[in-house]
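User: Here's a protein and a ligand (pyridoxal-5'-phosphate). What would the complex look like?
Assistant: Let me lay out the input and then the predicted complex.
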Amino acid sequence: MTDKLEFVDLKRQYAALKGSIAQRMQRVLDHGQYIMGPEVRELEDRLAAYTGAKHCVTVASGTEALLIALMALDLQPGDEVVTTPFTFAATAEMIVLLGGVPVFADIEPDTGNIDASKIEAKITERTRAVMPVSLYGQVADMDTINAIAARHGLAVIEDAAQSFGATYGVGSRSRKSCNLSTIGCTSFFPSKPLGCYGDGGALFTNDDALAQAAREIRVHGQSARYTHTRVGVGGRMDTLQCAVVLAKLERFEWEVAQRLALGQRYRALLADVPGVELLAVRDDRDCVWAQYTVFVENRAALQAALQAQGIPTAVHYPKPLHHQGAYTRFAPAGDCPHSIAAAARVMSLPMSADLTHAQQDRVVAALRSALADTAASP
Ligand SMILES: *Cc1c(COP(=O)(O)O)cnc(C)c1O
């Protein structure tokens, strides 16, 4: 019997944590503080300690974390934010929602992350911030990006929705994603490396004033009850979702280690497969593989051939943002050629901490046979 292979397997994780999750949720149901209950602060303290950041502020989603980060930095209409077009829409969406202007810099063709050497040319007197994305779970070139930002007096927001648990720097210089810049933003969407059972997110900072601003903005700009000091949003994370993440933290270190090991194993298994190009991982970084993404040709046919063998795949992302209707006005078609090329070639394979070696072997065998089939038929 072959078990069904999920793109992201959350069932085994649930089976492993069922008791703790039930207990944590029951405690919330018993005390009844569904909004801003004690689990909210408990989770924030745990996540701040995990990342090493001074402050963690939980919010309603990863998207909300980006929005609140930009609001805390007081982004004004017309302000520019240099970012990557090769990302999920939320990154640029929150800039545009506030009247800001996303200025797209192209990616490194081998990692998919923003190319730091392309950022400085995009900076103008309207630039307020740089927003790199730690794509697929690998942190962008943050030292270089931070140095450029410091020279120009800009804030850096890391969109770390896919990289919670990833590290940057080697040995004693190793630091965690989310604690690498002015503000780090992550998502607890169920399929992200650290997920809840609905929507959730968090932002991280070492700046007391930004943390205070974020805490107020998330509750309609209140500095005290019914004292609206600034314009905010309804951006809290539910107590129940915080309870779920607290339970999931019990084996999160193990999950990160699993993800790193499974990523290494995919690399080894796919290294000599013709027609598959691996994503580069920099020597000073650990990638937590939010999804295991490779470059291929003839992607649609490959995906269909894999689906026929029961192997689900996904594309992160099929079009760069400046080729999406809502964002074409921010850059001419054809700009950022590496992003366009990557969007045509990326394909993500099943990945989760609970993926077994047998399942991984099945994926690789299916990919080999799919490649042979699609190469044979034009
Ligand atoms: C998932 C994701 C987001 C949005 O997170 P949500 O919690 O779904 O709102 C933002 N940016 C990137 C790069 C993401 O992958």
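Summary: The domain at 10-103+111-250 is CATH 3.40.640.10 (Aspartate Aminotransferase; domain 2).
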